[in-house]
Amino acid sequence: MSLSEEKLIGKLAMLSVLDETYTSHVDVLGWQQCIGKVGSMESNKVVAAIETAAKKNEIINGSVYRETHALYHAIMEALHGVTRGQVQLGTVLRTVGLKFSIVRGTPYEKEAEGEWIAVALYGTIGAPVKGLEHEAIGLGINHI
Amino acid sequence: MSLSEEKLIGKLAMLSVLDETYTSHVDVLGWQQCIGKVGSMESNKVVAAIETAAKKNEIINGSVYRETHALYHAIMEALHGVTRGQVQLGTVLRTVGLKFSIVRGTPYEKEAEGEWIAVALYGTIGAPVKGLEHEAIGLGINHI
Amino acid sequence: MSLSEEKLIGKLAMLSVLDETYTSHVDVLGWQQCIGKVGSMESNKVVAAIETAAKKNEIINGSVYRETHALYHAIMEALHGVTRGQVQLGTVLRTVGLKFSIVRGTPYEKEAEGEWIAVALYGTIGAPVKGLEHEAIGLGINHI
Amino acid sequence: MSLSEEKLIGKLAMLSVLDETYTSHVDVLGWQQCIGKVGSMESNKVVAAIETAAKKNEIINGSVYRETHALYHAIMEALHGVTRGQVQLGTVLRTVGLKFSIVRGTPYEKEAEGEWIAVALYGTIGAPVKGLEHEAIGLGINHI
Amino acid sequence: MSLSEEKLIGKLAMLSVLDETYTSHVDVLGWQQCIGKVGSMESNKVVAAIETAAKKNEIINGSVYRETHALYHAIMEALHGVTRGQVQLGTVLRTVGLKFSIVRGTPYEKEAEGEWIAVALYGTIGAPVKGLEHEAIGLGINHI
Amino acid sequence: MSLSEEKLIGKLAMLSVLDETYTSHVDVLGWQQCIGKVGSMESNKVVAAIETAAKKNEIINGSVYRETHALYHAIMEALHGVTRGQVQLGTVLRTVGLKFSIVRGTPYEKEAEGEWIAVALYGTIGAPVKGLEHEAIGLGINHI
Ligand SMILES: [Mg+2]
Ligand SMILES: [Mg+2]
Ligand SMILES: [Mg+2]
Ligand SMILES: [Mg+2]
Ligand SMILES: [Mg+2]
Ligand SMILES: [Mg+2]
Q: Which Gene3D superfamilies match (chains A, B, C, D, E, F) (predicted)?
């Protein structure tokens, strides 16, 4: 497989969001990473929180559109896993509490494959009442 | 949170599919679990492989429809995370190689919440050519 | 409401598929109707069965595309209710056994609203094993 | 068919929303049922109205998440039939006026199949202008 | 092909939105057309702008529901091309700047095919920041 | 707008598929382009035809996954415009006859934005019977 076994960017992003001790694995590779949290009934706020964290932590260069574009589609793909059908939260009366991990690195053995970005989400989704919720997970990956 | 911190069924299912050493965490809880693999361009074969493993390993009772129904929807939800938009593989010229973990347990503190089932998927998705692929993840959770 | 209370085409189509005694209500209005059955794992066969019945029973004129087009979209909308997310059957390992009713009539009080077509579906959806299924319903309505 | 012919929960829910005389059929079976109405351009208000009615009429126990979860997914599935593509109302400039019926019962012959819940919706969908609308129907069914 | 080569309503609508010199092609056919612009993060405002333009320019008769219905579905189909997955804008933190062309005419050789309506959209979609955007296109066609 | 007015890659791709005289505009910019045709009821064959043309005409380097990945998502986005809801053809009993244009170039003024790819589709979609069809259009754009 062209994906290098020690450089599985999606797995690393997901593990680091599930268990913070894994963030060191990303550091060892010399890749960039940031971890954050967002809770909202408004899906646009979830997108905004992840984008803001990525820019503030310089995972992406916010003034270059191709980087914003790569990240945006990775976020949307990750939200598909969390929402499973309609990328909607409050409009279908549900809310999320999510931890997110954004990793930028070079997961492929061939240098020509360049950089990729992974967005991993883990948390809960459910009614806007504490406890009426179950877990949800999403992963989006894109070339950058 | 009503979800017991040590009994996060989704997290445990996902961790055990990412790293097999985590399967013991599920055993400690006395929950049922099975792990398997499936690779296919046919989405129905992916569904069938997971259903068959769940029945064969007695995670669900295949002769009770409510159990099959709970599992089916959990699988479909997990596939949303893997496919991110259209639950289609070969019909849009892509294939998956997935590892799956099915966990059945009691993640909530309150006994009345009963049993739940989690289906975690991790692997690669891409063109039907080795190496032209990236990682994908999905998680589906349902009451059973 | 511009929809005439005694001419609710969707309600009449649905009632006649749930209980054949209601077909007389459609006849009284002088509207056209046909009722049929289709069972398949192949979604295209479901579409074909409904289209064929509509043409054979002269509910639509199969040689006029605008009539075929109106019916096709009504069928697709009805299938959304049956499939609830992805208009797929066998590709996600499920099958349907459906009764369908196609009604063509003039449900609006104003003459300018002209003819409309309703496709009502009722039956079961589930695993390709007898009994592992629950009911499903769909209704599609279009101007013709 | 394992679904008992006199206990077709989806059919009974749909018939009772189309014609109130059918509510007695549900009573005869000793099942629980409630009927209500909701009109809104905000999809979350439709979900809320159905959930509130179910709790207030004790169709579900609102303090047990598994019951809320079962109902929520049944509502979402029913809304797929009503919206046919995107579970959106005001955000795509349309509004609904719906009658709903929620039925909880034991539709399968085998006792092990336990309780199920059906949400049937019938009404109109259209532009936010009286009369610019057609009928819409949805049914969601889940084990509870 | 029953579609007359010089009367390709979709092509004409799209060309006239891409290059205004093409609007004369529509005039030559004696068809109705209007062109407009809308920029918004609110998807309902995009729908409203197109509907309002169509009524004001008498492309459709706003007091006849079947005409509004035909236009509405054509708009929704065109928005699928622009949004590519979820017909959402601000709720997924993106905005559009669109030019639209609405054409009503008789694209088929056979007279029985009657009138059809095409809605063509062209513009940009992206983050709510000038320049962080790429182009998007959509076309919806319906019988009217 | 950061998109250079003379370098609107999506517009150029769409115009060249609607009217071949526009292909010279792409040549003038020194960008790469190829034009082709595909007709099929099988959505995977549509994807394959476009991918094959892009590789054969060296629009993308088929041995570099990031290029295949960029093209694949552009194709899928373009297909959303053509299919408007479900990226399915034969499985919902419809077929397409499409002309496609693939353009690779540098549409942004800032050099850092690098190369982008556009896939434009134009043709007909309809029943698998000649003439029972209307036009369809799709555009997908991605950074490469
Ligand atoms: Mg991808
Ligand atoms: Mg759920
Ligand atoms: Mg409609
Ligand atoms: Mg179900
Ligand atoms: Mg159509
Ligand atoms: Mg994009």
A: Hut operon regulatory protein HutP
